[in-house]
Design a protein that fits this description.
- By secondary structure, the protein is α/β, with parallel strands linked by helices.
- Helix content is 58%, strand content 8%.
- Strands 2-3-4-1-5 form a 5-stranded parallel sheet, sandwiched between helices.
- Helix 12 runs antiparallel to helix 15, helix 12 crosses helix 16 and helix 15 packs antiparallel against helix 16.
Length: 342
């Protein structure tokens, strides 16, 4: 009896890291080509979506017999469109339950799914996958980075995998310029690598070649708040919300104020701020701006602000407010603080 592990029939990739999802699917296609050659791999690959295909089309594709290779690859793009109500969901899951061993069905979902943390039930598709188990379903969550630091780490790793050299300062600058768009990030890394040649990509290269369409500069935003320019601060927040969802902006702010508090504590204790900044992943070029904003907040003020952030986060987790409500509350609080209100 063979001890080899069963090959999954369904591959569920979900999350807003579009580049990583595309890379995983490309690997599956490459395996198909290795097994039967590029021509047969192309013939046995089919891409479907609810926008152009019915659920019956999906079922027919899943049950089709592969031609001259062991497995077909069916790529279902945004398949939740086939399961918009309870009846459709039941039919959709019935199709998933009958995938034969001769088919690899990829469910390509470009959004995060609720994984059932904090006592909440998981998304119904994840619950189904958990019931079927890893021998039938391969699950991979691929969320996009939520702040500049996470995106910088993603870019640094992506550059390394692409055979390019990206300095930490360049990764930080590129992340600040483009935001969490991983597909664009990968393209920008490739462009910068061609420009830099054999040498490492620097922050100056990023400044020269990358057009910043995102640049959520929290220093600038807090400078507006601190100067009492509340209208400009509200407009800047509105601009951020046009480009990114509230969760992204909220998580950026949480990290920013956490770092301000860390640096304030370190400064009050006479610690070496450059060493602390390195430990927390703050690039050297950003430290002077952190110093400037630290001077605006006393340690008690930062602690009070962080407690307020925690309370707002807790209210959001209890579904009492939305993150947009939390952002508005925070900006109102900061504006009052800048004017000397308690």
């Amino acid at each position: 009896m063979s001890s080899s592990r069963p090959v999954p029939r369904v591959y569920l990739f979900y999350g807003d890291d579009h580049a990583s999802r595309a890379a995983y699917i490309a690997r599956l296609r490459a395996r198909l080509a290795e097994a039967g050659g590029e021509a047969w791999a192309t013939l046995n690959y089919q891409r479907l979506s609810p926008a152009t295909h019915s659920l019956d089309d999906l079922r027919a594709a899943v049950l089709s017999v592969p031609l001259f290779v062991r497995r077909r690859l069916i790529h279902a793009v945004e398949p939740l469109g086939w399961a918009k109500d309870a009846r459709q969901r039941q039919r959709f899951l019935a199709v998933l339950d009958e995938v034969p061993a001769s088919t690899a069905l990829v469910l390509d979902i470009g959004q995060r799914l609720d994984e059932g943390r904090r006592g909440q039930p998981p998304h119904w598709l994840l619950a189904w996958a958990q019931r079927r188990g890893p021998e039938y379903v391969f699950l991979k969550a691929l969320p996009a980075p939520r702040d500049v630091a996470e995106m910088a780490r993603w870019l640094y790793k992506a550059a390394h995998e692409a055979g390019a050299q990206l300095t930490p300062e360049a990764a930080q600058a590129l992340a600040a310029a483009i935001g969490p768009d991983t597909l664009r990030g990968l393209n920008e890394v490739r462009k910068l690598a061609l420009y830099a040649g054999e040498r490492p990509i620097t922050a100056d290269d990023v400044a020269a070649l990358v057009e910043g369409e995102w640049a959520p500069d929290l220093f600038r935003w807090l400078d507006l708040v601190g100067a009492g320019q509340s209208q400009a601060a509200w407009r800047y927040l509105a601009r951020l919300r046009e480009i990114h969802d509230a969760a992204f902006v909220w998580n950026m702010l949480l990290r920013h104020f956490r770092l301000l508090l860390v640096l304030r504590d370190a400064s009050d204790q006479g610690a070496n701020l450059k060493a602390v900044a390195r430990e927390w992943g703050i690039p050297a070029f950003a430290l002077p701006r952190y110093r400037q904003q630290m001077a605006r907040f006393s340690r008690p003020a930062l602690q009070a602000l962080y407690r307020r952030l925690y309370r707002l986060e807790s209210r959001f987790r209890r579904h009492e407010i939305t993150l947009d409500d939390a952002l508005e509350d925070l900006l109102t609080y900061l504006t009052l603080h800048a004017r000397g209100a308690s």
